């Protein structure tokens, strides 16, 4: 996964979680929560996240966020919304290949499913998603948009959880095409986007 994509994912996660933490904490308050108090809540949350490995690429950004939140004239909530808008603009430019990498990354983080390319001597390991390099090359066009369903092979006791998670992400549908002993063959379909572009199914 590219450095830019990792940075986008980490930033999106931190900003989203920070804003959720803020709104969950102030939702029971009576009346308006002043900016100073909002800054304090956000600074406390972000400071508690800065040592996590997932945010290792955001050291400079986190330092800036904390400085804004500690400044008497700063408005960290407003800054986080600005960052979120920029992330949405970046997301709009992601290719289908980028989205596939993001999906596999999420599957690893949420369910501990790893992924790798198959080789002639590949020994199927449990909870690993296998894809064929030639299938991937044929499955995307020159702009890295998916033009056909992608075959995935997996050996797992958690098939229902895997399929449910993929469906819950909203960008793909997944179906079982073949089961051989403990090994399952799956087909990953890209959903139609808002503009009705290629659904790869």
From TrEMBL:
Pfam families: DUF2913. InterPro entries: DUF2913. This is DUF2913 family protein. It comes from Vibrio lentus.
């Amino acid at each position: 996964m590219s450095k830019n994509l990792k940075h986008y994912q980490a930033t999106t996660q931190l900003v989203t979680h920070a804003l959720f933490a803020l709104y969950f904490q102030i939702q029971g308050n009576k009346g308006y929560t002043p900016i100073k108090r909002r800054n304090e809540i956000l600074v406390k949350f972000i400071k508690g996240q800065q040592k996590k490995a997932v945010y290792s690429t955001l050291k400079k950004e986190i330092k800036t966020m904390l400085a804004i939140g500690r400044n008497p004239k700063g408005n960290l909530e407003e800054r986080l919304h600005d960052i979120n808008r920029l992330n949405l603009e970046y997301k709009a430019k992601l290719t289908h290949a980028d989205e596939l990498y993001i999906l596999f990354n999420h599957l690893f983080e949420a369910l501990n499913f790893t992924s790798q390319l198959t080789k002639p001597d590949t020994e199927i390991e449990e909870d690993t998603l296998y894809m064929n390099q030639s299938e991937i090359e044929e499955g995307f066009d020159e702009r890295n948009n998916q033009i056909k369903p992608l075959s995935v092979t997996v050996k797992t006791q958690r098939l229902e959880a895997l399929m449910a998670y993929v469906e819950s992400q909203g960008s793909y549908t997944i179906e079982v095409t073949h089961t051989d002993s403990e090994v399952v063959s799956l087909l990953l379909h890209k959903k139609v986007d808002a503009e009705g572009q290629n659904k790869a199914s």
